[in-house]
DNA sequence: GCACCTATTTATAAAAC
DNA sequence: TGTTTTATAAATAGGTG
């Protein structure tokens, strides 16, 4: 329970901070989505945790809103060159987040913290092999996507999926 | 007063929509700010009203967060395409195969057959999210590779790693 | 650590001014 | 139209399993 007026100041305890970050980020994304729905607006929210992990929400997607902001005379010179994809949760996909997360747990077996620990034990050759494993999973996932698109799944009217994912590649 | 459960659907009345947009935008900015304060995180929120007016919040400012997002491989200028390289394993590495497989089981939790079954339950949106999870794993693995190459230091900056593979780029 | 719970704070829709 | 009020819904900190 909220025991007393919630103080807005830095949380020192790491796990508590992480919990709060996750909860409030989800709340923030939901509020952004509600705003977009109710007001027919566009919005993007980009968060960077203290650990440096990036999470972003966008309606209709992150890029159009960011580009709109940048092309409107705002923004520094754009800096490019890195290459990691970010977790972009969008629209209705967001509503299914915890359900989806649960199912994905079934596939991947563990959560981020555990990967961190387990991966920390791997050596170079094992990392190489892990990549092959990841490749394998990705192939299976792509096959599943084909199956759905071909008419076997329930979610065929999901439309605004970003260009970076397993699914849109199949749709090109 | 909020007279009843607030419906999240488009508001047709223009002035009412504008009022709601303003209030919710303020609320959204405040929540983003609180998140940053409490979790020592960075965040930006960019909104575009139906009329096309842009409002943005950023901590520490909009641009650093946007650039961070863009420089992490997101954004329009990212090159896309199938880009996963599999590394051929050589002799001595080969000898370690089953040991490696065991360790990778620790990371990935399941074997091929189980992935097949579990992935078969996923819907489109869940496949999308799974890709984010895969990216996350890959990122952790890349950090580990850097750690090894750098000689044991933890959590080196991973920005120099290429897009195609966890390990090989480090070896260039 | 994650999912669920719930007491309490916080956000906000509409009224009142 | 804008600001303030206020009744109610929504978010969430901390607890539990």
From TrEMBL, chains A, B:
Q: What Pfam family is a match, any one?
A: SRF-TF
Q: What is its main location?
A: nucleus
Q: Name one GO biological process term.
A: positive regulation of transcription by RNA polymerase II
Spell out the Gene3D superfamilies in the cross-references.
Answer: Transcription factor, MADS-box
Show the SUPFAM superfamilies listed in the entry: SRF-like
Give the MADS-box domain ranges: 1-61
Q: Which InterPro entries match?
A: SRF-like_MADS-box (IPR033897), TF_MADSbox (IPR002100), TF_MADSbox_sf (IPR036879)
The subcellular localization recorded is:
Nucleus
Q: Does the keyword DNA-binding apply?
A: yes
Q: What are the entry keywords? A: DNA-binding, Nucleus, Transcription, Transcription regulation
Which PANTHER family is this protein grouped with?
AGAMOUS-LIKE MADS-BOX PROTEIN AGL61, MADS BOX PROTEIN
Q: What is this protein called?
A: MADS-box domain-containing protein
The organism is Fraxinus pennsylvanica
